[in-house]
Design goal:
The protein is an alpha/beta fold. It is built from 8 helices and 7 strands; from the N terminus they run H-H-H-E-H-E-H-E-E-H-E-H-H-E-E. 40% of the residues are buried.
Length: 245
């Protein structure tokens, strides 16, 4: 089981959003504390050696804040602060981050958060991940995004992600498992509520079983390795760490 992230790390990452307003700051604190994926990324070394990251559906750019704050906290621990969790490897050194987000309000919050020098090149693009040029990256991260797209769009996004990665690149994907019964039903209810709040209408979700996600990744040129991402939680999520096949 992944250890909880230290409070100082959560505070440091969410502090980027103070200049973006109280909502952005409180959302960052709550999300980073409650969502196990952020601690898992560091504790399991899921982005090891990745310095340029493309974050599709990035929201207000929490992953950038998380990795930047982790690097600073780890550096202070090396100097004797002793706040870095025992057993966690050193975090990746983020040099360039490009996030793509369709929601204009989240883009505005992210841009305010990273308006000052962060020690890395942080770019937040306002656009639809189905249409924007991805460029190139060491790693592509897609957390809880693909099921908001229909099946053809999912395939297109994954093919574009494959094209953005070099031969030794990495795709880190979190998806739900449509075969997970009640936990899947709960996840879908939450997701539909999110869509209703953001778009003002109900929209169908492009859900798949875990095996179907793996098959889709294979068709798009990836070899995927799944691991649970819902320890202690009610939802049916999986992390898929995939490399170009």
């Amino acid at each position: 089981m992944t250890a909880a992230a230290p409070a100082r790390l959560i505070a440091a990452a969410s502090a980027y959003y103070r200049r973006a307003g109280r909502f952005a700051w409180h959302f960052a604190r709550g999300k980073l504390r409650a969502d196990p994926v952020y601690a898992a990324i560091l504790a399991r070394d899921l982005l090891r050696g990745r310095r340029t990251i493309l974050d599709l559906g990035c929201g207000q750019g929490l992953l950038a804040a998380w990795l930047l704050a982790a690097h600073e906290l780890h550096a202070s621990d090396v100097r004797g602060a002793r706040d870095w969790p025992r057993g966690w490897p050193a975090p990746p050194l983020l040099e360039a981050y490009r996030g793509i987000e369709i929601n204009a309000r989240e883009v505005a919050r992210a841009r305010q958060a990273f308006a000052l020098d962060t020690g890395a090149a942080v770019q937040i693009v306002h656009g639809d991940i189905r249409d924007v040029d991805y460029g190139s990256a060491d790693a592509v991260v897609i957390l809880d995004v693909l099921h908001y797209l229909d099946y053809p769009a999912q395939h297109r996004v994954l093919e574009q992600a494959r094209g953005a990665l070099a031969a030794r690149g990495l795709l880190l994907l979190r998806v739900g498992d449509a075969a997970a019964g009640l936990r899947c039903t709960l996840s879908q209810a939450v997701d539909r509520t999110v869509v209703l709040a953001r778009r003002g209408r109900w929209s169908p979700l492009g859900c798949r079983t875990l095996s179907d996600w793996q098959a889709l990744l294979a068709r798009c040129g990836f070899s995927a390795h799944p691991q649970p991402s819902s320890a202690g939680k009610l939802f049916a999520n999986w992390l898929l760490r995939a490399e170009p096949a």
